[in-house]
Amino acid sequence: MKSPIRLERRLKQPRWLNWAIPFISLLGALIVGAVVLLATGKNPLDVYWRILDRGFLSKRSITGTLRTATPLAFTGMCAAAAFRLGVINIGGEGQLYVGAVGAALVGLWLGGSVPVGITIIVMVVAGMLFGAMYASIVGVLRSQFNTNEIITSLMMNYIAGIILNYLIFNSRSYWRDPRSVGFPSGKPLDERAHWPSYELFGFGVSFGFLIAVVAAIVLWIIYKRSRLGFEIGIIADSPRAARYVGIRTKWTIVAVTAMSGALAGIGGASQVGDFAHYLDAKGLQLNNFGYTGIVVAALARLNPLGAILVAVLLGGLTNAGYSLQGPDFPSGLVGTLQGLILFTAVAGEILTKYRLRANRAASKAVTA
Amino acid sequence: MTNSAVRMTGVVKRFPGVVANDGVNFEVLKGEVHALLGENGAGKSTLSNILTGLYRPDEGTIELNGAPMSFASPKAALDAGIGMVHQHFRLVEPFTVAENVILGNQETPFLIDAESIIDRVNELAARYDMAVDPNAKIWQLSVGEQQRVEILKVLYRGAQVLILDEPTAVLTPIEADALFRTLRAMTAEGRTVIFISHKLDEVMSVSDRITVLRGGRTVGTVATMDTSTRELASMMVGRSVEFSRVVRRNPGVPADVVLSLSQVNCDDDRGRHALHDVSLTVGRGEIVGVAGVAGNGQRELAEVIAGMRSSTSGRIAVAGNEVPNGKARAAIAGGVAHVPEDRLHTGLAAGHSVEDNMALKNYRTPLLSKFGLLRRNVIATQASDLVTKYDVKTPDTATPVRLLSGGNVQKVLLAREFSTRPKVLMAASPTRGLDVGAIETVRGRLVEAADDGVGILLISEDLEEIMSLADRIVVIYEGRLVADMPAADATREQLGLLMGGAKMEASR
Amino acid sequence: MNSNIFIVIAWSAIFYGTPLFFAALGGVFTERSGVLNLGVEGMMLIGGVTGAWASLHVGGSAWFTLSAAICIAMAAGAVVAALHAFLCVTLKANQTVAGLSITIFAGAVGLSSYFANIWKVAEDPVTRQIRRLDVFGLADTPIVGPLLFNHTILTYLSWVMCAVASWYLFRTKIGLQLRAVGESPQTADAMGINVVKYRYIHTMLGGALAGLGGAFYSLAIVPTWVDGMTKGAGWIAIALVIFGFWRPGLTLLGAYLFGALQSLGTVLKSRSFDIPGDVLDALPFVMTIVVLVLVSTRFAHKRIGAPAALGVPYEREER
User: Fold this and answer.
1) Same domain, residue pair B353 and B480
2) Each residue's pLDDT tens digit in chain A (368 positions)?
3) Closest Cα in chain B, distance from residue A231 (Å)
4) What is the pTM of this model?
5) A-contacting residues of B 57-96, CB under 8 Å?
6) Residues B169, B255: one domain?
7) Which of chain B's residues have a Cβ under 8 Å away from the Cβ of C192?
């Protein structure tokens, strides 16, 4: 038995592949998605058109798309930052929750009592710190004990979810609105702790989205031009070479994991400051921003600037999913499509390493 | 014709970017030890991988006992009676010897009957004079014993043709002699042995006939009794070469110590005691050779000096200044340069460009970075200067080093290490796997550096290399330095015995 | 049932541990072949939803319906696992990312939820569920009765499987070859063992067992379909494989330990113990981390059974 195609190793990776692969992946996912839709009795063209319409074709839909894209950009950068080092931090979900907890804490505490600017800055910093600290548990365990970070970061996601539930639903914490008796909810922030939003080309752009863009640029400079970025690249390429030149690998793992968590943490802070204006325990857990961030990072091929673009793309998909959800647009469809995109992105990576070649039938093999 | 065991005609095998075999003709007779001689990259391994079914030839025919054959897989070749003992053993470490021997054998019943297998293995081992315990786990065995398991594996399958790929590379001289006896016992029973090597002496002593490969083509086949090492060497490299003791411009100054180790102990990766009270000095401009069979603590020795591994006791000083324990950056700053054995993944970051690799040791200096940001243009200039100075053949400095040839990889590494202006340079097997031209360049660079006053610690399993370069030779065995003598006084036989664990007195 | 709290907890440990064991045993097979499967959670959920669907829509006797549901759940898990094998073995993709993509694709907000929606599985409770048996009529025997003779057929099946799996891995030729593939695919290939075939088969076997574990949730534990109902069990199963040192017997013990932790919340709450429910809910996750740290520190320098080639794609023509 012989497969009709075979894989031939590429010696060099052509540059155009960097751009082509995400598009090929996306196209592939849409085609496979169409098969799934057809098989389950839906018209794929109709579904795709409605997603496009609700996600990208009006000012209102783009505003909603950017809103969804904001947390995805942060969780995408969170995943990308750690993956670059070879640390598979899939704890963006939990780090986002914890960032939201931190930002809500200082927002509730300072809101109205100090100038708006300071409140907002402190909220951002608190989100970063909380996210970073939560993530650095994973980083320390990995660097000190070589504990598998995939599983620990995932377990930390579930724990963070339980912390949220505890703070809002199962306790009388500082975050819970004491007036919400029957149905518990978060205590609302003072209006002077709300983050501003701006009108750009007629679309509403949140403050958080702007921070995401700045963060992406900073991250890009770190990777391309900084000593830290150089060291991260060496560690990822060859841990032995890193040891050989005396790079502090353990320290770098903790630092990068913390940085990764800080990014997700700002995403959480933005959920509180930009949109919900209280610690929304249910809403945060509903959207799977952290997991979708992994899709974002993979599709952006770990490039932070790419992560912004991909976040907008997937934000549109998700946003359309919300507004279309109903009997003929079942939940789970958007997640399935996202999974397919990630799938094809993973499979697409193979094009960077191998060339596909047809297997000639000429080489007849005698199996003795 | 009827006496032919294997005949390969016009075999061509291409890989992306290289033609590994380019019309090879090769015939082996039944019951002989046939050596396949050639430099690294001459196509020996590719040819044997084709013969054992791992690769399929793009062109050409293979005949086994006169009948044309084409093997779809190693299994098919094995079933047809061709077995291979690889240079890197194909053994499953956590398995026992017996489990490894029966692995993949179709005759093994579904339920494994341990008793009868062990009897069979014992019987085979006794017949060919190979002592090995069938119940031992592979990782508990010495390298020589592991090789015996490999041979037992193919014999158990009833192989009539055995291919051995550089079998003596990992053996002590004593173990090698035992291996040669085993091979003779096998050919005496009518089995055929193909012996792949690039070592002229051992080829002369073990084989009946020799086929020489160069650049993927057959140069010729000669009977061993009708040829000489000199003739073989010129067939192998295409011109006559002589390795002899180097002539030094400036002799070293042993009294002016640049590197000293006193009573150094350390553990290996598995936490076992790897170096025992090692004391050693290297003088200015002196080349000290560390001889020993692989795995006797050489790697740990180099790593401890380079600060990549912490010692558990003892002290290390460079030019009189003590180097902090286990701090690679401090060792580098103190003047220790290191050409590790694993060039591509320890000495270099293989996926990174020539440019980045040239900056690997000094990217933190103010020259190359400011405020935590790299000065990319200076890094590029540094790299292109070094590429010119050391004659590195690369399309440009942005090319990843993994795409360079072995000789050029080593040049990149040496260029960078020498550019740090070291006081001491450690070189571990610096010429292994290189072709003759590159070997000459690398050795020339080492001697040149020593002439300029760098103290050199040359760690190598290649006695030839140590005897031709070193001023002084120490022998390492099981983590201990067991001898220290001027190179002029050392003989091959004596070093061989010491490397095999013989006591100093006994060797005298 | 005997209401002694220790017996309740011990019984629950076995009950809740059973699906964990199925998924973890699947992981043992998959990882022994050298393939890392982080898609277990997704495979469990697909098994759960297809099993629930089958129990609602396949006619016939209860026994027939449930047998069919189990077979369908296992087949569905195996199909998803085949995708994983295609990515990891054939395309030699990064196994970590491939596994994650499986879990995202098939997981709580992905295909399993989509299927549940279009098949309207969640609207009806599963009428035919897998019930506890009263084996030999001994269920009422004090202590051993509830512990040993009052479980579902699947629990008894899991004990058989545990024994068979140990025998298969360590006593048979196929098991020896499987372990060789996971330890050193180069060696296995050189000895004529079909590495690709072994990896596909055991990845799919792992997926089938994950599907069975998922079906246990939707047919026995809850028993109805709820989106994302496994709540991280797939991930705990992956940790259990490490905890069990890649051996079926130890994995079974580990599964029962985590089963006990999972059930603690339910059991203690129902008896109004004054421990915050959230702490108990978090316990399995915290314990997983603790166990992983212990395993990785204490045994880091010794060989503890992790297949040497785990997570490494096998490539024959390496140059």
Assistant:
1) no
2) 445 566 666 766 677 777 788 888 888 889 999 998 898 888 999 989 999 999 999 888 999 999 999 999 999 999 999 999 999 999 999 999 999 999 999 999 998 899 999 999 999 999 999 999 999 999 999 999 888 898 899 999 999 999 999 999 888 899 999 887 778 899 999 999 999 999 888 888 999 999 999 999 999 999 999 999 999 999 999 999 999 999 999 999 999 999 999 999 999 999 999 999 999 999 999 888 998 899 899 889 899 999 999 999 999 998 998 888 877 788 788 888 888 888 888 888 777 777 766 655 434 333 33
3) 9
4) 0.85
5) 69-73, 76-77, 79-80
6) no
7) 73-76, 78-79, 104
Contact B347, B438 (CB under 8 A): no
Q: Both B284 and B162 in a single domain?
A: no
Provide the 10 A C-beta neighbour count for residue A26.
18
Note whether C192 contacts B110, CB cutoff 8 Å. Answer: no
Q: Is residue B242 part of a domain?
A: no
User: Closest approach of chain C CAs to the CA of B92, in angstroms?
Assistant: 6
* Neighboring chains of A (3 or more beta-carbon pairs < 8 A): B, C
Q: B353: which DSSP letter?
A: B
Same domain, B384 and B310: no
Cα B313 from Cα B305, distance rounded (Å): 13
Query: How far is Cα A204 from Cα A192, in angstroms, rounded to an integer?
Result: 19
User: Which residue type occupies A363?
Assistant: S
What the block records as the tokens of B248 is: 């030094």
Q: Determine the Cα angle at C201 with ends C200 and C204, to 5°.
A: 85
Q: Which of B342, B345, B369 minimises the CB distance to A227?
A: B369
ipTM of the complex: 0.86
For B211, residues 6+ apart whose C-beta sits below 8 A from its C-beta are B26, B34, B35, B36, B37, B218, B220, B221
The residue segments making up the domain with residue B256 are: 247-335+424-446+455-508
Residue reference for tokens 């002590």? B172
CB contact at 8 A, A103 and A280: no
- Listed by start position, the domains of chain A span 71-307
One-letter identity of residue C11? W
Could B111 and C171 be called an inter-chain contact, meaning their C-beta atoms sit closer than 8 Å?
Answer: yes
C183 to B139: CB separation less than 8 angstroms, yes or no:
no
A244·B79 Cβ contact <8 A: no
The structural domain count of chain B equals: 3
The span from the CA of B411 to the CA of B405, in Å, is 10
Backbone angles phi, psi at A342, to 5 degrees: -60, -45
Does B363 sit within 8 Å of A230, measured CB to CB?
A: yes
Q: In CATH, what class is C5-298?
A: mainly alpha
Q: How far apart are CA B392 and CA B188, in angstroms?
A: 50
Distances (CA, A) of C276 to B319, B465, C283: 65, 72, 11
Q: Which residue(s) pair with B47 in the sheet?
A: none
Please name the member of C173, C176, C187 whose beta carbon is closest to the beta carbon of B91. Answer: C187
For residue B363, the chain A residues in CB contact (below 8 A) are 227, 230
Task: Give the whole-angstrom CA distance, residue A144 versus residue B252.
Answer: 44
Residue with tokens 């109004």: C272
* Mutation to test the B interface, candidates C33, C179, C184, C310, most B Cβ within 10 Å: C184
Tokens 């620990």 belong to which residue? A152
Residues 6 or more apart whose Cβ sits within 8 Å of residue B117: B98, B101, B102, B108, B134
Q: Contact B93/C184, CB-based, under 8 Å?
A: yes
The beta-carbon neighbor of A241 closest among B73, B346, B372 is B346
Q: Does C163 touch chain B (CB under 8 A)?
A: no
Q: Is B383 on the interface with A (CB under 8 A)?
A: no
User: Is the Cβ–Cβ distance between A67 and A316 less than 8 Å?
Assistant: no
